[in-house]
Input
Amino acid sequence: MSHLLDLQKFYPGDIEITNKHETPDRIIVQLKSRTKSQKCPSCGCESNQYHSTYKRKIVDLPILGKSVLLLVTAYKYDCNNPDCDQKVFAEELDGFAGWYRRKTERLEDLILTIALNTSCEGCSRICKYMGIDVSGDTIIRLFIKYAEKQDVSCSEIIGVDDWAYKKGQKYGTLICDGRTHKPVAILDGRDGSELKKWLQNNKHIKMITRDRASAYAKAISEVLPDAMQIADRFHLHQNLLKVIKDTLSREIPNKIMIPDESSNNEIEPRLLIEQNKKKRADR
Ligand SMILES: [Zn+2]
Output
């Protein structure tokens, strides 16, 4: 039984390690695709006609604190379907590193897991310590790509609220499923225009909880006039507190005077307390 670590086992069977070497701060693994055929991303037809090869640089999970760079030689295929506009396409390392991705999917999973348990900026700092160079903004983009990749259908109840990419500068709109409480879409901006587009493709929605901003209310009324719009609990509390505060300030005078038994006059509560304090101290 061999006690040597077989690095090849950590890579898909159709990507073969051809070389590996180490520098003071990173491990470089050279790989070559051994795929025999691929499906065209445009028409879905299978092709076994190689067109050419191309090089990809992909960052993988670090090993013992050293970053790992993969230099992958992958294929481009010809699409044989005469009706397809795409004549040549690059192969996808499906389940390992998608098209045009610079990180392996397992590395992206690790980054997103850390970010979910800390924050995007916190995750960026932890990753730097682990030898992974990724900024907080890149992590947000990873989340957005991840959300877009999901084929998420939602129930007829949703919640809509805005959130800040960067407070005071850039905002987005988050849509959550009211039954599963899971996010179903992240949209750019909070002016309601992207929400309108999203609602047009989701006309089965019947109930929407939202904040008090008029942009969302207007977008919903225009696309789904029959949908019930509900102010969410946080904003209901805010409304209630505002009404209580307004009522109290209207009904209760600014200055409350209390009868002073010793002088048959009225006196401010603050002065009365001070007066009583003094009396007790004199006793
Ligand atoms: Zn095609």
About this structure: Residues 18 and 165 are 42 Å apart (CA to CA). Residues 10-101 form one domain. Residues 40, 42-43, 45, 79, 81, 84, 86 surround zinc ion (CB under 6 Å).
